[in-house]
């Protein structure tokens, strides 16, 4: 039998404890099913996704999972093992009843509701189910626990729909979504549930993960390619600041707005300089993705100071992603390190989404020999750092972080090695 991810196995073991051996009003004929989706790390390409640029994430061996049984009605009953909390959702009436239902749900269940609501809005036929949820993606820690929850919800809804809705690689039909369409749907769900106008990075990374590979995604065309991420000698370590800041959501939306404003100004400058006859043929700028480093250098001094720094970071980061992708194609994983330090500097000084605790973790890493590169990861203002480390330095870095970080910040931390793992899964267990 297939080995389940540990968090999925735990959810399975918990199901009969929570819902009783008969699954508590589940369809008695229905088998026990399990669905899961991974969190991600992002090697490079931070705050580039909503600028229609490039990202290079890896799905990791941490997942959010549902274990449950289909019901014969339209009722969804969920027990979160992590929050020790029950939530109930009515499929009937969605998406119209979204606003009425979301009010009385705990935060974690709002993401589930939002995905179910979007699936129904897309015209898919869903069926109720009882399920236990569990995960080992650090919550709110910059490893996309919410995207993993959204994507796992879609896979669970498909599993329990009893063949009425499938997720498959082939062409989309009225009853089939491709993994990439699921990613877009889950991105909309994230907007609905959290109010954060996120890009597609997290949901795409979760939907499209492949073991031993990073995913190079063009966030404009949504074309993607897998690049080998394997090197005998190096590992990825994730260190958690244990900081979760409320302001992250509003600061994120503000950065996005600033990028949009920079695009408007740059497009206007370019238009103004074009000869009348040239206007129609001059390349148009509709996102920072269209601004090359050369073009940016030409116009940067005419942007307001804050917008210049924000846009300057994004333009440079986009170029870095493509250079790192090229290195991975050549199998030169170790050469990626310097780019991570550069990204951190940009996020700290120009994009201004780092914080003291993230900077402390990166500076600790900088002093350990054998650390090739480190940076803050994800939206910022807390969460995790990602560290590219020679295997021979894993222990030393772990020890340095565990001893120095609490001393410098008064906080606890945890350090974990992550591996590039596969995407979501869903199956019924044999009776
Ligand atoms: C968060 C968002 F959800 C992503 O879309 C992305 O913008 C990331 O921050 C920054 O790269 O994880």
TrEMBL record:
One GO cellular component term: cytosol
The Galactokinase N-terminal domain, residue ranges: 31-70
KW Magnesium (keyword) present: yes
Keywords, ordered alphabetically: ATP-binding, Carbohydrate metabolism, Cytoplasm, Galactose metabolism, Kinase, Magnesium, Metal-binding, Nucleotide-binding, Transferase
Entry keyword annotation includes Metal-binding: yes
GO terms classed as biological process: galactose metabolic process
The GHMP kinase C-terminal domain, residue ranges: 327-405
Taxonomy, superkingdom: Bacteria
SUPFAM superfamilies named in the record: GHMP Kinase, C-terminal domain, Ribosomal protein S5 domain 2-like
GO molecular function: ATP binding; galactokinase activity; metal ion binding
Gene3D superfamilies (alphabetical): 3.30.230.10, GHMP kinase, C-terminal domain
Enzyme class: transferase
Record-listed E.C. numbers: 2.7.1.6
Boundaries of every GHMP kinase N-terminal domain copy: 111-209
PANTHER family: GALACTOKINASE-RELATED, MEVALONATE KINASE/GALACTOKINASE
Family recorded in the similarity comment: Belongs to the GHMP kinase family. GalK subfamily.
Protein name per Swiss-Prot or TrEMBL: Galactokinase
């Amino acid at each position: 039998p297939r080995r389940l991810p540990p968090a999925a196995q735990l959810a399975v073991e918990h199901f009969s404890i929570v819902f009783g051996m008969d699954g508590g009003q589940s369809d008695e004929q229905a088998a026990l099913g399990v669905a899961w989706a991974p969190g991600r790390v992002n090697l490079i390409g931070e705050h580039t996704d909503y600028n229609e640029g490039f990202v290079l994430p890896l799905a990791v061996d941490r997942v959010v999972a549902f274990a449950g049984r289909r019901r014969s009605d339209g009722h969804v009953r969920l027990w979160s093992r992590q929050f020790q909390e029950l939530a109930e959702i009515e499929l009937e009436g969605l998406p119209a009843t979204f606003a009425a239902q979301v009010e009385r749900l705990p935060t974690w269940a709002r993401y589930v509701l939002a995905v179910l609501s979007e699936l129904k809005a897309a015209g898919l036929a869903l069926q109720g189910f009882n399920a236990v949820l569990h995960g080992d993606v650090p919550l709110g820690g910059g490893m996309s626990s919410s995207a993993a929850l959204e994507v796992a919800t879609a896979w669970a809804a498909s599993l329990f729909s009893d063949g009425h809705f499938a997720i498959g690689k082939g062409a989309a039909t009225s009853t089939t979504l491709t993994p990439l369409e699921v990613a877009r749907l889950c991105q909309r769900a994230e907007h609905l549930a959290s109010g954060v106008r996120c890009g597609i990075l997290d949901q795409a990374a979760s939907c499209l993960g492949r073991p031993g590979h990073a995913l190079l995604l063009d966030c404009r065309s949504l074309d993607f390619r897998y690049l080998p991420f394997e090197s005998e000698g190096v590992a990825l370590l994730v260190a958690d600041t244990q900081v979760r800041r409320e302001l992250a959501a509003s600061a994120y939306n503000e950065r996005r707005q600033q990028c949009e404003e920079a695009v408007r100004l740059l497009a206007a400058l370019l238009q103004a300089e074009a000869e009348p006859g040239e206007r129609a043929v001059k390349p148009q700028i509709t996102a920072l993705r269209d601004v090359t480093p050369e073009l940016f250098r030409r116009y940067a001094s005419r942007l307001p100071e804050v917008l210049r720094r924000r846009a300057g970071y994004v333009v440079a980061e986009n170029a870095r992603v493509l250079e790192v992708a090229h290195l991975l194609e050549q199998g030169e994983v170790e050469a990626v390190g310097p780019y991570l330090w550069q990204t951190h500097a940009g996020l700290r000084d120009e994009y201004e989404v780092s914080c003291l605790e993230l900077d402390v973790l990166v500076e600790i890493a900088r002093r350990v020999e054998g650390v090739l590169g480190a940076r803050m990861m994800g939206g910022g203002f807390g969460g995790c750092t990602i560290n590219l480390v020679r295997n021979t330095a894993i222990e030393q870095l772990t020890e340095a972080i565990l001893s120095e970080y609490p001393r410098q910040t008064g906080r606890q931390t945890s350090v974990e090695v992550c591996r590039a793992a596969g995407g979501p899964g869903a199956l019924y267990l044999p009776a």
